[in-house]
Automatic annotation (TrEMBL):
Signal sequence range: none
Organism: Anabarilius grahami
SUPFAM superfamilies xrefs: TNF receptor-like
Protein name: Tumor necrosis factor receptor superfamily member 5
Database matches in SMART domains: TNFR
Transmembrane segments: 20-38
Domain TNFR-Cys per the UniProt entry, residue ranges: 132-174
Length: 222
C-alpha cells in the first residue's frame, strides 16, 4: 500500500504542471551560473590595477617614479609616493599619480640648505633649487652637495704662482715659479715646489732642474 506522499507525487507527475516545474528549476540553475560568470568577469581588474583580497587596487608603477606608501584595503585605495630621488608632479586625493627625478645643480651652483626663505632642497613635492657659488668657491661638476669647494691657493712660499684664476666652475690652476721644481702633485696640479739647489764653490752644474709635468707634456706632444 502506497503512502500519502508517494500517492501525491504520482498524482502530481500525471498533471500538466510537471513540465513547468522542470523549466523553473532549469531556469533557476541557469540564473545561478550566469550570475557567477558575471561576477567572475566583473572582478577582473583593469590594466593599471592589481587584485588583493578580492579588491582591484591601483598600481604604484616604478616607471612612473612611484612606490606603495599604503596598501589597498576594502575601504581605501592604494596610496602611492615618489621613489627615492623623485618628486611628485601630479597628486589625487593624497596619493601621487606621477613623479619625476630630481634635477642636479649645474656646474657653478650648489643646493642651498633647507630652512631658508628663498631656496630649498628637493622634497617629495618639489625639485632641487640651486644657488650660484660665491666668490672664492667653485663646483666643477653637477652635484647634490650643499656647499661649493674652496678655491685652491697658489702660495709663493711653496714656490707656486697663479696660472689661471679660480671661477665658479673651475678651480685655481697653479704653476711652479722660475728656479723651482715641483715635489708634490695631485690631479696634475703642483701642490708644493722647492727651489733648485745651487752648486757650491768648486762645483759645476751636471744636470739642470726640470718640471716633471713639462717633460710629460713634451713626451705626449713631440
Amino acid at each position: 500500500m502506497k503512502s500519502g506522499e508517494e500517492t501525491f507525487a504520482s498524482a502530481f507527475k500525471s498533471t500538466s504542471l510537471a513540465p513547468y516545474v522542470n523549466m523553473i528549476h532549469f531556469g533557476f540553475v541557469l540564473l545561478i551560473v550566469t550570475t557567477l560568470n558575471f561576477k567572475l568577469c566583473f572582478s577582473a581588474c583593469a590594466r593599471a590595477e592589481y587584485e588583493i583580497n578580492g579588491e582591484c587596487c591601483p598600481m604604484c608603477a616604478p616607471e612612473q617614479g612611484l612606490r606603495v606608501k599604503r596598501s589597498c584595503t576594502r575601504f581605501a585605495d592604494t596610496i602611492c609616493e615618489p621613489l627615492e630621488g623623485f618628486y611628485c608632479i601630479e597628486q589625487n586625493k593624497g596619493s601621487c599619480r606621477f613623479a619625476v627625478k630630481h634635477s642636479e645643480c649645474d656646474p657653478g651652483h650648489y643646493i642651498r640648505q633647507a630652512g631658508t626663505m628663498v631656496l630649498y632642497d628637493c622634497t617629495g613635492d618639489s625639485s632641487t633649487t640651486c644657488k650660484p657659488c660665491i666668490l672664492g668657491t667653485f663646483m666643477s661638476e653637477p652635484s647634490g652637495l650643499h656647499k661649493c669647494f674652496p678655491c685652491n691657493q697658489c702660495d709663493e712660499n711653496q714656490g707656486l704662482y697663479i696660472q689661471s684664476k679660480c671661477t665658479t666652475i673651475r678651480d685655481t690652476i697653479c704653476d711652479v715659479l722660475d728656479g723651482y721644481h715641483c715635489t708634490e702633485y695631485s690631479n696634475l696640479q703642483c701642490l708644493r715646489a722647492v727651489k733648485h739647489s745651487v752648486c757650491r764653490p768648486g762645483q759645476k752644474t751636471k744636470t739642470l732642474g726640470f718640471d716633471p709635468e713639462f717633460v710629460e707634456r713634451a713626451h705626449m706632444n713631440p
